[in-house]
Amino acid sequence: MANLMIIIDIVSVLAVIWAVVALANEASPLQDFCVADFNSTVRVNGFPCLDPKQVTADHFLFKGLNITGNTSNFLGVFVNRPTVNEIPGLNTLGISTVRVDYAPQGVVPPHRHPRATEILTVLEGTVLVGFVTSNPENRLISKVLEKGDVFVFPFGLVHFQQNVGPGNAVTMAFLNSQNPGVILVANTLFGSTPRISDDVLTNALQVDVSIITKLKEPYH
């Protein structure tokens, strides 16, 4: 009987932990939908709800995810990321999507999503993906994906993608946030306004100040 009570207690604790984890992300909606009202002066965590009588099908629609993006930039990628700002009907639903087009060797640089886990599918091409675990391990977990392969980037971890095939590539991803956000590692370190001091960066990265100056040039 004592052992049974211990098992029941453990199960109860695990149930509480699971409930807390489940609630740690965006809250479940309390109505059928809450289309974002961008004109409201009310400020909440998300957007206030548009009057349901004003809601139309177009509030839930986004067109153009089938269109190949222009990859003629220094990264060789085009990111088409419809979030709640493009699809007002996503408000409070905790999901969004992204299409990325890659030229050969095109790269989505190391970045993280502060509010989302990401699941990525390769639609065309061969794509190298990877993420880095948190301190102190900092272990790179990486894989080369082919068409039809699926890979998950855990919540908040720094990750990247690169087209390593001979031709163009396309990926589609889904994220469990209406507005997952993007924090690019290089932009954060070298492109902030005002700038992070050279003294902080030289000590943190253990490099000469001339290197820090050079790294900051593209961002200012």
TrEMBL record:
Xref: SUPFAM superfamilies: RmlC-like cupins
Domain Cupin type-1: 75-213
Keyword annotations: Apoplast, Disulfide bond, Manganese, Metal-binding, Secreted, Signal
PROSITE patterns reported in the protein's UniProt record: GERMIN
Disulphide bridges: C34-C49
Recorded GO MF terms: manganese ion binding
Gene3D superfamilies to which the protein is assigned, alphabetical: Jelly Rolls
The keyword Signal is annotated on this UniProt entry: yes
Origin superkingdom: Eukaryota
Any Gene Ontology CC annotation: apoplast
Record-listed Mn(2+) binding positions: H111, H113, E118, H159
Residues that bind oxalate: H113, E118
Signal sequence range: 1-19
Cellular localization per UniProt: Secreted, Extracellular space, Apoplast
Stated family: Belongs to the germin family.
PANTHER family: GERMIN-LIKE PROTEIN SUBFAMILY 3 MEMBER 3
Protein name as it appears in the record: Germin-like protein
Lineage of the organism: Eukaryota, Viridiplantae, Streptophyta, Embryophyta, Tracheophyta
